[in-house]
């Protein structure tokens, strides 16, 4: 009887941060943006990709997969609030942890795949031509989903030694890859200009804006956890779990809204909306919707 009481008391929907819930509530507040803006934006991204399926860009599979997982993650936010203040169910908390695992893994990996696709297209166009068939992207997407399921299952199971360091290593590797990848693309685009290539400048500008938009997302959403999580050992366990982690994850989680808005902002016209209704107020978000590099465009 006593053992049963200890087990029941050990479970907390606030993950042990009942008296230090400010960081968790900050994360959930930003996640509300995913519900109001992110879910409709991701559904619209999927609608655009379905509409353009006869003339797809090379990264559409990654973009569609990313939009799907982001919409799923956003749909779990109301469930999280209900479980915190109403249900207080351990089973629901396990489902929520699974959704967090999906977000932790699918976002960085699919964005890395998009960067890889553009990197090959701009820096190694011959290799990109050989790897253009859709089977390669389907295979890489399947691998990402498999890794996502394994990580999410491990997050639900819990009790694994140094499991959180897996995410820290993943986010560091993904961040480094995306920065190097986008930096290489920008450098290649800069070097490609020269005498007799004036006709390429408009397309170069579009490609530059596409890569710059991804770099903006990478810095805004991924730099905070990259800057905070490697220093876990310098914080007390409670401070790291209840404040540092939720705040770092908050910036990562709100990418479920920022990423689809970045894509939609590059469209000349969004489907189902009148011409000119797609906002393009931020220079970081302007560009061309096609993932095909300048050299591949007619």
Please characterize this protein's 3D structure.
The chain is an all-alpha fold and 298 residues long. The chain has a single domain, classed as Rhopdopsin 7-helix transmembrane proteins (Up-down Bundle), CATH 1.20.1070.10. 72% of the residues lie in helices and 0% in strands. The chain is globular. Residues 1-8, 194-200 and 275-298 have low confidence and may be disordered.
Q: What's the total helix number?
A: 11
Number of strands: 0
Order of helices and strands: HHHHHHHHHHH
Helix content: over 70%
Give the C-level CATH assignment: Mainly Alpha
The CATH topology comes to Rhopdopsin 7-helix transmembrane proteins
Biggest sheet record: none
CATH architecture: Up-down Bundle
Radius of gyration: 21 Å
Kindly name the structural category.
Answer: mainly alpha
End-to-end gap: 74 Å
SSE map:
Elements (H helix, E strand, L loop, with lengths): L1 H9 L11 H30 L8 H16 L1 H11 L2 H34 L1 H6 L3 H24 L6 H29 L8 H28 L8 H17 L1 H11 L33
Helix pairs in contact: 2-3, 2-4, 2-10, 2-11, 3-5, 3-11, 5-7, 5-8, 8-9, 9-10, 9-11
Key attributes of the depicted protein:
298 residues, mainly alpha, Rhopdopsin 7-helix transmembrane proteins, disordered N terminus
């Amino acid at each position: 009887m006593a053992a049963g009481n200890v087990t029941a008391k050990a479970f907390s929907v606030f993950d042990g941060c009942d008296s230090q819930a400010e960081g968790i509530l900050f994360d959930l507040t930003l996640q509300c943006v995913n519900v109001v803006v992110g879910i409709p934006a991701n559904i619209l991204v999927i609608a655009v990709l379905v509409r353009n399926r006869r003339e797809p860009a090379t990264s559409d599979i990654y973009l569609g997969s990313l939009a799907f997982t982001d919409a799923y993650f956003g749909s779990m936010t109301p469930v999280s609030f209900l479980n915190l203040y109403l249900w207080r169910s351990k089973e629901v908390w396990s489902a929520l942890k699974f959704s967090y695992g999906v977000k932790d893994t699918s976002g960085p990996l699919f964005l890395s795949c998009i960067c890889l696709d553009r990197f090959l297209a701009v820096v190694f166009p011959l290799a990109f031509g050989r790897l253009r068939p859709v089977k390669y992207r389907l295979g890489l997407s399947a691998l990402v989903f498999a890794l996502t399921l394994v990580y999410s299952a491990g997050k639900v199971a819990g009790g694994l030694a140094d499991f959180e360091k897996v995410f820290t290593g993943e986010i560091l590797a993904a961040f480094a890859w995306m920065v190097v990848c986008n930096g290489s693309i920008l450098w290649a685009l800069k070097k490609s200009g020269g005498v007799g290539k004036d006709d390429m400048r408009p397309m170069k500008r579009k490609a530059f804006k596409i890569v710059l938009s991804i770099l903006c997302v990478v810095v805004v959403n991924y730099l905070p956890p990259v800057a905070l999580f490697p220093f876990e050992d310098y914080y007390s366990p409670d401070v790291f779990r209840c404040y540092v982690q939720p705040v770092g994850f908050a910036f990562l989680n709100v990418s479920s809204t920022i990423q689809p808005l970045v894509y939609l902002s590059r469209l000349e016209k969004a489907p189902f909306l009148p011409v000119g209704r797609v906002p393009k107020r931020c220079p970081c978000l302007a560009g061309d919707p096609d993932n095909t590099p300048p050299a591949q465009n007619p």
